[in-house]
Each structure stands twice: as C-alpha cells, then as structure tokens.
C-alpha cells in the first residue's frame, strides 16, 4: 500500500533523536535543513553530532533514553539498534499523537524519511513506502541529474510574480503558463 506524502512545517518544533550513531547523524543532517529544535539522547555520540552541538545547532543528553525525554516532543526518531525500544517508543508516541520514526522497522513508524532534493523552497521527497530505500536513493540521484540547475531562481521569480498579483482566475492561468514556460514544457 503506498503512503500518503505530507509536507510538515517543523520550524522550532521539538524533535527528539534517540541514538547518536551513523544513522542518527544522517537523519539529523536532513532535519536541520528545516530548523527544528533537536535534542539527541544517547550515551555514545559521533564526532559530527558533537560538533553540531558546539555550533549551537542541537543539544545532547549523554545517557540512555527514558520515556520522560519525549513527553513534549512533536516528532521522535529512534535510531537505536534495539527493536524492543523501537516498539516501546512507538506505542508511547501512538497514544499521544507524537510522530514517530523507527529506523529499523517500518511497522513502528508513523512517518518515514524520503530521499530528499531541496532547492530553496522547492522540496522533492521520494519514497517506496518503506519497501526499497536504496531505490529511493537512486531515484533521488536520477531526479537531481535532470532538474534545471537554476530551479531555485525559477521558483523565486515565479513566487515574486505570484505575490505581486491579486488572487483569482487570471493569476491562476498566468502562473500555470509561466511555470510551463520556465521549464520548457
Ligand atoms: C530514503 C532514505 C532517507 C533517509 O535515510 O534519510 C531512507 N533510507 C535510505 C537509505 C538506505 N537505507 C538502508 C540502505 C541499505 C540498503 C537496504 O538495506 O535496503 C540504504 C541505501 C544507502 O544507504 O545507500 C537500510 C534500511 N533502511 C530501512 C531499513 C529497515 C527496514 O527496511 O526494515 C533498513 C535495513 C537496515 C539493516 O539491514 O540493518 C528503513 C527505512 N529507510 C528509509 C529511508 C525509510 C523508507 C524509505 C522509502 O520509502 O524508500 C525507512 C522505512 C525508515 C526511515 O529510515 O525513515 C535513505 C536514502 C537517502 C538518499 O541517499 O537520498
Ligand atoms: N533507516 C535507515 O535508513 C537505516 C539504514 C541503515 C541502518 N539502519 C539501522 O539503524 C540502526 C542504528 O544504526 P547505527 O549505525 O546508527 O548504529 P550505531 O551503533 O552507530 O549507533 C547506535 C546509537 O544508539 C545509542 N544507544 C544505544 N542504546 C541506547 C539507549 N537505550 N538510549 C539511547 N541511546 C542508545 C548508542 O549510544 C549509539 O549512539 C541499526 O539498527 C541499523 O540496522 C537504518
């Protein structure tokens, strides 16, 4: 069954990452692009996550996880090689409507990470609904190859035109026409 893609605004929202290893690192690098407040809970932390803390980009709690760590979270990532813990966190989050991603078990995720292409405010997220992550990665590389180099500029130009015009049918038609023209369609 394919998953519904939704784009969330997580600016300033509390994100808790349980685990501080290689996979946590990859998820954190991605999340930071969207400016949430990130708290990492783990006894062992990679040098890159340590350096992000020094730069003031996240905070670290250097110990094992306890449930209290996530009681105010908007979103939780369990990047620990421990299925029991992943299940426990998922069950807790599910009861409280906290978004949960368990890196080892799609069954214990309420959302999954897409392969991501970001150009300014243009976001392209690719997923196989949890089935073949390596294919999402390859599709991301494929899409990156065919996208126009100046996509960010194109979006900015169109955004400026759009925001300078009153809402309505005339603007709708113009925006559709210009978007096609900018992409040579
Ligand atoms: C897209 C991407 C985004 C990101 O990570 O940010 C992402 N995985 C990526 C790469 C990747 N992950 C894995 C490999 C090795 C090949 C392989 O094992 O197949 C590679 C390839 C590589 O590393 O090149 C291993 C792996 N991944 C998961 C499991 C558990 C399982 O399947 O049960 C295992 C087995 C672990 C083990 O065997 O121990 C689970 C998930 N990985 C997801 C996302 C979610 C589903 C995405 C979708 O719907 O497609 C989901 C469900 C949960 C989640 O993580 O959100 C990122 C590419 C980023 C990019 O390059 O752009
Ligand atoms: N979803 C994906 O894309 C993907 C890709 C590859 C691997 N994985 C899986 O991700 C998991 C993590 O991999 P990794 O390479 O980052 O592992 P790792 O061993 O490098 O890191 C594990 C981290 O968890 C911490 N930890 C352990 N027990 C903890 C506890 N009770 N509370 C808090 N922190 C705790 C450790 O201190 C460490 O920081 C593995 O199970 C792996 O199979 C997922």
Automatic annotation (TrEMBL):
Pfam families linked: NAD_binding_7
Enzyme class: oxidoreductase
Keyword NAD among UniProt keywords: yes
Keyword terms, alphabetized: NAD, Oxidoreductase, Porphyrin biosynthesis
Pathway: Porphyrin-containing compound metabolism; siroheme biosynthesis; sirohydrochlorin from precorrin-2: step 1/1
EC number, UniProt record: 1.3.1.76
GO biological process, one term: siroheme biosynthetic process
InterPro entries: Met8-like (IPR028161), NAD(P)-bd_dom_sf (IPR036291), Sirohaem_synthase_N (IPR006367)
Catalysed transformations (reactions): precorrin-2 + NAD(+) = sirohydrochlorin + NADH + 2 H(+)
Listed GO MF terms: ferrochelatase activity; precorrin-2 dehydrogenase activity
NCBIfam families: cysG_Nterm
Name of the protein in question: precorrin-2 dehydrogenase
Lineage: Bacteria, Pseudomonadati, Aquificota, Aquificia, Aquificales
């Amino acid at each position: 069954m394919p998953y519904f893609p939704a784009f969330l605004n997580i600016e300033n929202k509390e994100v808790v990452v349980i685990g501080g290893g290689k996979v946590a690192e990859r998820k954190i690098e991605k999340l930071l692009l969207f400016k949430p407040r990130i708290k990492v809970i783990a006894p062992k932390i990679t040098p890159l996550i340590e350096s992000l803390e020094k730069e003031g980009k996240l905070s670290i709690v250097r110990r094992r996880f306890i449930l209290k760590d996530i009681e105010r979270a908007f979103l939780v990532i369990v990047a620990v090689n421990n299925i029991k813990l992943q299940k426990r966190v998922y069950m807790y989050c599910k009861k409280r409507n906290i978004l949960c991603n368990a890196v080892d078990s799609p069954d214990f995720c309420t959302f999954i990470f897409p392969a991501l292409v970001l150009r300014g405010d243009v976001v392209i997220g690719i997923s196989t609904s949890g089935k073949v992550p390596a294919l999402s990665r390859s599709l991301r590389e494929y899409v990156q190859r065919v996208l126009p180099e100046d996509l960010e500029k194109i979006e900015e130009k169109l955004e400026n035109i759009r925001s300078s015009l009153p809402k309505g049918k005339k603007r709708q038609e113009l925006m559709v026409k210009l978007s096609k023209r900018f992409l040579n369609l």
